């Protein structure tokens, strides 16, 4: 069981690097432990929203170009702005082929998206039906924000969204209205309304009668000058097709917002990546995980030669190269103990910043540990597309 490349991890970094290897003609296998963090993802892709020191960034590429002098140990500094730009272009084109249209501003500026809580989050690439909200009022082309308040849906609280939007300077003078929407009267469903999740509504709206009832209610309460914020409830693969149909039927502008997990917009990206990986001939060990590896010394340094997995037990997997994309704490790619952060599979060195006493704070939003873990993760993963 020998390969040119074995990728460890089935998240965005793992699938993306594996797909790139397959495109280069390399025999590639991917060890995937199961659901990735994409199930909890917004479906947008960040490039650089703030520097390691916390300075907000509106134009990522000029900021990255300065990393070689400002943050020389950062992975962006080691790769360089030109390689990162090419990698982003390749990723965008690959995702478009896979069925998920990702958009960015023409001037390579970050944009803001509305989160499921009604806050604004800076990002670089967003899906087709995510409104790219500018950083000042003049950049935005809508008179009102209309929130679809689906009566039977518990994972999108329009009152909270409206309160948080009004609290932002960008929306303080923008009328925000809540539009009650009912779907069950034409769905034929007898399920309890308290048990409905995103996937349930996707099934309901596959009915033509339910779709027309849903769309007509929106048309009755919104106009072409409104930005209609709708929770992502239309499915993964078929979700964009549904939104396109809804747009053509109503003539309105929609802004799809991810909901509480599971996030259909994140799953949409994962399914597209997995489908593209399989289409290109990749071998996937799904539901498996690496348990150990064998290293040797050479002129190039310490080399990983082979690995063992939980499901294959005594059978070894060998490759000319390995890519570690096992993620952070959420996916068990890193583990925190009382006095250290460890990489649990191979025991690799992990670089953290600050003393152990700095890893926590009474303030819930404290970011020291998060920044430390992300820095450690970036330094561990070999992810050079060019």
What does this structure look like?
By secondary structure, the protein is of the alpha/beta class. It has a domain of 161 residues. It is 30% helix and 22% strand. It is built from eleven helices and 16 strands. The chain has a six-stranded mixed β-sheet with strand order 11-2-1-14-13-12, with helices on one face. Strands 8-7-9-10 form a four-stranded parallel β-sheet, with helices on both faces. The protein has a two-stranded antiparallel sheet with strand order 3-6. It is globular. The C terminus is likely disordered.
Helical segment count = 11
Spatial ordering of strands, largest sheet: 11-2-1-14-13-12
Succession of helices and strands: EHEHHHHEEEEEHEHHEHEHEEEEEEH
From the N-terminal CA to the C-terminal CA, the straight-line distance is 27 Å
Q: What average pLDDT do the residues reach? A: 86
**Biggest sheet details:** 6 strands, mixed
What would you call the structural class? alpha/beta
Low-confidence stretches: 364-386
Instruction: List how many beta strands DSSP finds.
Output: 16
Residue share in helices?
Answer: 25-40%
Calculate Rg over CA atoms.
23 Å
Quote the beta fraction.
15-25%
Given the C-alpha coordinates, what overall shape results?
globular
């Amino acid at each position: 069981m020998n390969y040119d490349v074995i990728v460890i991890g089935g998240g965005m970094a793992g699938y993306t690097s594996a797909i790139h290897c397959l495109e280069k003609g390399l025999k590639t296998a991917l060890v995937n432990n199961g659901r990735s963090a994409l199930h909890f993802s917004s479906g947008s892709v960040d490039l650089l929203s703030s520097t390691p020191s916390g300075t907000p960034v509106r134009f990522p590429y000029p900021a990255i170009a300065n990393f070689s002098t400002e943050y020389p140990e950062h992975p962006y500094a080691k790769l360089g702005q030109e390689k990162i730009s090419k990698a982003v272009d390749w990723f965008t084109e690959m995702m478009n082929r896979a069925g998920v249209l990702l958009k960015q501003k023409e001037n390579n500026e970050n944009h803001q998206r509305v989160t499921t809580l009604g806050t604004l989050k800076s990002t670089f690439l967003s899906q087709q039906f995510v409104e790219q909200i500018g950083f000042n009022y003049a950049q935005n082309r809508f008179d009102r924000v209309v929130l679809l308040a689906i009566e039977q849906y518990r994972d999108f609280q329009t009152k909270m969204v409206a309160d948080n939007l009004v609290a932002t300077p960008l929306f303080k003078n923008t009328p925000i209205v809540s539009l009650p929407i009912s779907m069950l009267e034409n769905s034929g469903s007898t399920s309890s309304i308290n048990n409905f999740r995103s996937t349930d509504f996707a099934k309901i709206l596959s009915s033509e009668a339910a779709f027309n009832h849903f769309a007509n209610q929106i048309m009755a309460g919104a106009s072409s000058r409104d930005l209609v914020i709708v929770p992502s409830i239309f499915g993964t693969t078929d979700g964009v097709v549904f939104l396109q149909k809804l747009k053509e039927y109503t003539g309105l502008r929609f802004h799809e917002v991810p909901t509480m997990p599971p996030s259909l917009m994140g799953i949409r990206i994962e399914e597209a990546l997995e489908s593209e990986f399989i289409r290109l001939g990749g071998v996937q060990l799904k539901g498996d995980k690496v348990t150990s590896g064998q290293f040797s010394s050479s002129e190039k340094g310490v080399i990983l030669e082979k690995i063992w997995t939980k499901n294959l037990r005594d059978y070894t997997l060998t490759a000319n190269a390995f890519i570690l994309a096992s993620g952070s704490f959420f996916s068990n790619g890193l583990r925190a103990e009382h006095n250290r952060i460890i990489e649990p599979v191979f025991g690799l060195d992990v670089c953290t910043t600050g003393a152990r006493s700095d890893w926590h704070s009474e303030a819930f939003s404290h970011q020291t540990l998060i920044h430390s873990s992300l820095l450690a993760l970036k330094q561990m993963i070999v992810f050079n597309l060019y």
